[in-house]
Design a protein that fits this description.
Layout (H helix, E strand, L loop, with lengths): L17 E3 L1 H7 L3 E6 L11 H14 L4 E6 L4 H12 L3 E6 L9 H8 L3 E4 L9 H10 L4 E3 L7 H17 L7 E6 L3 H12 L5 E6 L10 H15 L13 E2 L12 H14 L8 H13 L8 E6 L10 H4 L10
Parallel strand pairs: 2-10, 3-4, 3-6, 4-5, 7-8, 7-10, 8-9
Antiparallel strand pairs: 1-2
Helix pairs in contact: 1-9, 2-3, 2-6, 3-4, 6-7, 6-8, 7-8, 9-10
The structure holds pyridoxal-5'-phosphate (PLP).
Length: 335
């Protein structure tokens, strides 16, 4: 595909497995459910950011940069995968994390520390508001910093998911997906999968489950995804431009907000674990699977459908959500 002309460094194991989940499907009805295991990309416990970083850090190396800056929440999977990639590529890594330093480092934060990243605490600035300031500071100190955008969601990150669509289609046989469902949060995965669907001429319904409640809405998340998809299309020299009808963003499952675990996530995590032995995460894939389960129960996804759930990773965050995911001292989940 066109993405081949962009420099790419190898950071993960691809293709990731494509598996069917017959037990989970049987627990819900008659639709078939498949899963693309991007939780198994292999980079320091994996996740969808590994794909994006292969292109984004490919550019950083091509530009001769020696220091990486990125930002996210305390339990950011993106920051953890960036820290691992930087270690492997011998780049200094600076992470700007939202909130204040907790008493003990758990889950992804523990891994960020083990991976040797430099951590800066940013209070309520969890989306990279403080990046420009740190960039100037590191530049004055003689470094050659490179900014990986929040969530790795720029054109290069999206190209990685257009390429991932090609990978998926090369693995799938006669099943022909009717729906592709995934967690959508910073927009790169969504924009890339929209492009992939277009480039490879697929008819499935592509449904992003919105993870964040729209807080400031500047610009609204759907407009952001659309604009990123169109900027990436231009970069790939396709004439095609997307419009609002091409974008499906399900915003009914944001519950009490980003990172707040509710009954929807608890049930999805528990059911997937107990039927398939597969771990989802409390922030993204637990919520997205909760949305998929709801769509099957309400009939929006029907008996004859073949659904692909894109597992985008995140399970290391489970270890930071112990109290939200268990109700008694035997570790029994309430679901
Ligand atoms: C980042 C992330 C997502 C969302 O991907 P975006 O490209 O940021 O929308 C989904 N799931 C997990 C586990 C993630 O870490």
């Amino acid at each position: 595909m066109h993405g081949l002309k962009f420099p790419r460094v190898s950071l993960g194991f691809f293709p990731t497995p494509l598996v069917e989940l017959p037990n989970l499907a049987a627990a819900l009805g008659e639709a078939r459910i498949f899963m693309k295991r991007d939780d198994q990309t292999g980079l320091a416990l994996g996740g969808n950011k590994t794909r994006k970083l292969e292109y984004i850090l490919g550019e950083a190396l091509a530009q001769g940069c020696d220091t990486i800056i990125t930002a996210g929440a305390e339990q950011s999977n993106h920051c953890r995968q960036t820290a691992a990639a930087a270690a492997k590529l011998k780049l200094e890594c600076h992470l700007i994390l939202g909130g204040a330093e907790p008493d003990s480092a758990r889950g992804n934060l523990l891994l960020d520390r083990i991976l040797g990243s430099h951590i800066h605490w940013a209070g309520d600035h969890r989306k990279g508001e403080d990046i420009p300031q740190l960039f100037e500071q590191l530049k004055s100190a003689g470094k050659r910093p490179y900014v990986v955008p929040y969530g790795g969601s720029n054109e290069l990150g999206a190209i990685a998911f257009a390429e991932a669509t090609r990978e998926l289609l090369s693995q799938s046989g006669a099943e022909r997906f009717t729906h592709v469902v995934f967690a959508s949060s910073s927009g790169g995965t969504h924009a890339g999968l929209m492009l992939g669907k277009f480039i490879y001429d697929q008819a499935y319904r592509l449904i992003g489950i919105n993870i964040d409640k729209d807080e400031t809405g500047e610009p609204a998340f759907d407009q952001y995804i659309l604009s990123l998809a169109n900027r990436t299309a231009a970069m790939l020299e396709t004439e095609h431009r997307f419009s609002t009808e091409d974008l499906v963003l399900a915003s009914d499952y944001t519950g009490a907000g980003y990172g707040v675990v509710g009954e929807l996530e608890r049930e999805a995590i528990s059911l997937t674990a107990r039927t398939e032995g597969i771990l989802l995460d409390p922030v993204y894939t637990g919520r997205a699977m909760g949305g998929l389960i709801d769509m099957i129960r309400t009939g929006e996804i029907g008996n004859n459908d073949n659904v692909l759930f894109w597992h985008t990773g995140g399970a290391p965050a489970l270890f930071a959500y112990a109290s939200e995911l268990t109700t008694d001292d035997r570790g029994e989940s309430p679901a």
